[in-house]
Write a structure and sequence with these properties.
heterodimer, A: mainly alpha, ABC transporter involved in vitamin B12 uptake, BtuC, two-stranded antiparallel sheet, 15 helices, disordered N terminus, B: alpha/beta, Rossmann fold, 2 domains, six-stranded mixed β-sheet, 17 helices, 22 strands, about 35% helix, globular
């Protein structure tokens, strides 16, 4: 029960991993479920494993995926952002609008990003300085932003008449056969995962989410970290918006609707917690893949679109339930599998 | 020999691979105060959790007044007459005093409606009994800790408990409140209730209790009558080894002035705080809980704002006291509340250790894994921290080891001035001794150490000089022969009751 640190067990040996199995379990479980689904679907539908379907799947999950990377950071910091879908739409609409006015494309794109940054800064300021809780704040900014989208677009779509070649390539082209949108998503995910694991600046997010008071006492500028997080989330939503615009060639006011729910679900499935302090980009990505594969499967199996919300909501609840149960310390009578496995996570009263 | 009211024998409890209790044994007699002492991990909490119905034992028996009993849960235990007053009070802060006293057992009238009148009059009677000036409809969160504790004690009496367990009740009370509690316990004793008292404080145990049981490593070691034993004997049995003197010998050659604070004030929280501390010495801050020591020192290092005050480090003034800046310049402040704002319970031991030096460990913004491992491992092993691995979540460690991780976190910042707020709160004797020895070593090696402590023997045993605070002001600076309990208490206590 009490051994001074064992030299053999640090770094990446199996024993050290075991101590982190609480978090690892989550990612592993999701990966297994994804693999199982892939296997089932490849038998259930002849179209599943085709290049076209995989491409569609990849493109479909890229936008959500990029936003999800940002959401992981927001959740890890102890908050979350409901306005991401609206920001994505705002970026697309704003960019298309500027382009339609005749401004050069690259300025229009910067304009789109700027609009997103403004919303992100507003979120950041309200949450970190005025200290309104993230749920209410982002619910409000989501509504405002979506409203702004409708105001700018006057309720109709704004097409891009002569999109530059680069943009077209971005949206519809590919790199060695892999859709460029997906490639960008992969790059964002890999960089995001690496930074969240290893970057001194990014790691601060976990400390803030785990215990903001302790973070402050350890010299971390909590307000600055929180502010930055929300700006970052908005910028990533902006990227998703630009990519969607490039892909469809037109911006619709409904773009991004519902993205926040899907993305939060994906992150929680992947191991992030509403309580903050945990979550990895890898886990979130697996969650995004899982949700999109399920949606893809429903389509291929001719399940009515009406069922999709029902199923998506149920998955979220099951995922959060598993997550909560697995973190619960052992009770007097509970000898559940999860509780037993996670005895090391149980907090001992001194 | 009268029969004991409560008997537990052969009680065991394991949590997975961890054997928290290997042999729990206790006989509590009516009208007696029975102390339970032991280091952290000794199994005291587990044993008490079993007696109060919070956990079910894996094996062993419990007898209440001669009959075998099993408790299905804490409410069952309460109904049988075994109550517990928790160390961290388990009240609902937003409900009233009366509702808390009847938590889970609201008396019902016709149609299942609650009988608030009955609750209120019983509550009033209880409060009267304990001479507390709280009212039945006061909100619990508005009361002082001492008053809240009375509410929790009253709850057990509402159920006419024959056994009341107190788990380290004085750890967050002021001297006055502790005295009041001792009075209450004497009262309960006179009524024939069997009292079980867990404590880390020898003085308290020897003043209050009739019998003492020592536990170690999850097992019963010995039970003695208080007048047949001595604190030294008890401590030796607790620890299993001879500790020698509790406090290491002091140094008397301090170096240059490290830090000077002048005129720090903030409203009524603290007024005109000025002091200096030198390298190589331990400066203690004594005073009652609530005298403003933590508030003042937190403001001095820039964690909290102040209305006025200037800081000098090594003789030169510090323009803007920005805390992160000061950490980089070698000043650290270790919080008194490790779970609240000292540690990140869900994160790994290593993550907790490196939090204040993230940038120092990085090149190009990326944390160097190897250095991070080495730095953490060295600091933690030098403190003899007991843990399974660096990746273990810190919440799984015992209190004493958590405290060591917090200390390690500050040691790796390579501080020249280190302020520690209640460094040994709520940890066992063995770990306390280690931390005391460490602090003296650090001072001997040249560090300027400032210790805030409400534990008089500790602050006297550790410090070379003591600043006594009362109601937000420094009222005395003592050294040499002036450093004794009487002088400190005299300076700490207000001449008129607040």
């Amino acid at each position: 029960m009490s051994t001074v640190i064992d030299q053999r067990t640090d770094k990446t040996s199996a024993l050290a991993r075991l101590a982190h199995r609480a978090r690892k379990m989550n990612e592993l479980v999701v990966l297994i479920v994804v693999i199982v689904l892939f296997t089932i679907m490849s038998f259930a539908s002849p179209y599943f494993l085709t290049w076209e379907n995989m491409s569609t799947l990849a493109i479909g999950l890229a936008a959500d995926g990029i936003i999800a990377v940002g959401m992981t950071v927001a959740l890890a910091s102890g908050g979350f952002d409901l306005s991401v879908g609206a920001v994505m739409g705002l970026t697309a609409i704003a960019t298309a609008y500027f382009a339609a006015q005749g401004t050069p494309m690259w300025i229009a794109v910067i304009g789109g990003f700027f609009a997103a940054a403004v919303v992100g800064s507003l979120n950041g300021w309200l949450i970190s300085r005025v200290r309104i809780n993230p749920f209410i704040t982002t619910l409000g900014t989501m509504t405002i932003t979506r409203g702004l989208v409708y105001v700018i677009s006057d309720g109709s779509s704004i097409p891009m008449y002569e999109p530059p070649a680069f943009l077209t390539w971005l949206g519809k082209g590919d790199v060695l056969g892999i859709p460029s949108i997906f490639v960008i998503f992969i790059i964002v995910a890999v960089v995001g995962d690496f930074l969240l694991r290893r970057s001194a600046a990014a790691r601060q997010v976990y400390y803030v989410g785990s215990n903001a008071k302790a973070a402050r006492l350890s010299g971390i500028n909590v307000a600055r970290v929180e502010f930055t997080v929300y700006v970052l989330v908005a910028l990533l939503a902006a990227v998703a918006g630009i990519l969607s615009l490039a892909r469809f060639g037109t911006a619709t006011p409904a773009m991004g609707t519902g993205a926040e729910m899907r993305v939060i679900s994906a992150a929680v499935i992947g191991g992030a917690s509403i309580a903050g302090g945990m979550g990895t980009v890898l886990g979130t990505v697996l969650g995004v893949i899982l949700l999109n594969v399920i949606q893809n499967a429903l389509v291929l199996l001719n399940v009515s679109v009406n069922w999709q919300n029902l199923i998506a909501g149920s998955i979220l609840i099951v995922a959060v339930a598993i997550d909560t149960l697995s973190r619960r310390p052992r009770s007097a009578r509970g000898r559940g599998r999860f509780s037993r496995m996670l005895a090391s996570v149980r907090t001992r009263r001194d | 020999m009268p029969t004991p009211v409560l008997v537990g024998s052969g009680l065991t409890k394991s949590y997975g691979a961890t054997r928290a209790l290997v042999n729990g044994h206790l006989e509590a007699y009516a009208g007696e105060v029975h102390a339970i002492v032991g280091e952290n991990g000794a199994g005291k909490s587990t044993l008490m959790n079993i007696f109060s119905g919070v956990v079910a034992p894996d094996s062993g028996t419990i007898q209440l007044e001669g009959t075998d009993v099993t408790f299905a849960g804490p409410d069952a235990a309460l109904e049988h007459g075994v109550g517990i007053v928790h160390q961290e009070l388990s009240l609902c802060p937003d409900l009233s005093v009366a509702e808390n006293m009847f938590l889970g057992f609201v008396p019902r009238g016709r149609w299942g409606l609650a009988r608030f009148g009955e609750m209120s009059s019983t509550a009033a009677r209880m409060l009267e009994l304990f001479k507390t000036d709280a009212q039945p409809y006061d909100r619990v969160s508005d009361l002082s800790i001492g008053q809240q504790q009375v509410v929790e004690i009253a709850r057990t009496l509402v159920h006419e408990c024959k056994v009341i367990i107190f788990d380290e009740p004085t750890s967050s009370l002021t001297e006055t409140e502790s005295e009041a509690l001792y009075g209450i316990i004497a009262d309960l004793k006179a009524r024939g209730i069997a009292i079980i008292f867990i404590s880390h404080r020898m003085t308290e145990v020897f003043e209050l209790c009739d019998r003492v049981t020592v536990m170690r490593d999850g097992a019963w070691v010995a039970t003695r009558k208080i007048d047949e034993t001595t604190p030294d004997e008890i401590v030796t049995m607790m620890v299993g080894r001879d500790l020698g003197g509790l406090y290491p010998p002091k140094n008397s050659t301090p170096g240059a002035v490290a830090i000077t604070a002048e005129g720090f004030s903030r409203g009524r929280d603290f007024v005109d705080i000025s002091f200096s501390a030198r390298y190589g010495e331990i400066l203690g801050f004594a005073g009652l809980v609530g005298s403003g020591r933590s508030e003042a020192l937190r403001a001095v290092v820039g964690i909290d704002p102040s209305d006025a005050g200037s800081l000098h480090l090594d003789g030169s003034p510090v323009k803007t006291a920005n805390y992160a800046d000061l950490i980089a310049r070698g000043v650290g402040y270790m919080s008194e509340d490790r779970k609240g704002d000292g540690l990140f319970l869900s994160m790994s031991i290593e993550a907790n250790t490196i939090v204040a030096i993230l940038r120092r460990l990085s090149s190009g913004g990326i944390i160097a894994r190897g250095r991070s491992h080495d730095v953490s491992r060295n600091a933690l092993t030098s403190l003899r921290t007991k843990m399974a691995s660096l990746t273990q979540p810190v919440g799984a460690l015992s209190g004493g080891n958590q405290q060591k991780v917090m200390l390690a976190k500050w040691l790796v910042t390579d501080p020249r001035v280190l302020i520690l707020d209640e460094p040994t709160r709520g940890i066992d004797i063995g770990a306390k001794h280690e931390i005391h020895a460490l602090l003296r070593q650090l001072a001997d090696a040249g560090m300027c150490v400032i210790v805030i402590s409400s534990d008089l023997p500790e602050v006297i045993g550790l410090s070379d000089r003591i600043a006594v605070m009362r109601e937000g002001r420094i009222v005395a600076e003592l050294s040499g022969d002036d450093v004794n309990e009487d002088t400190i208490i005299t300076h700490s206590s207000a001449p008129t009751a607040a």
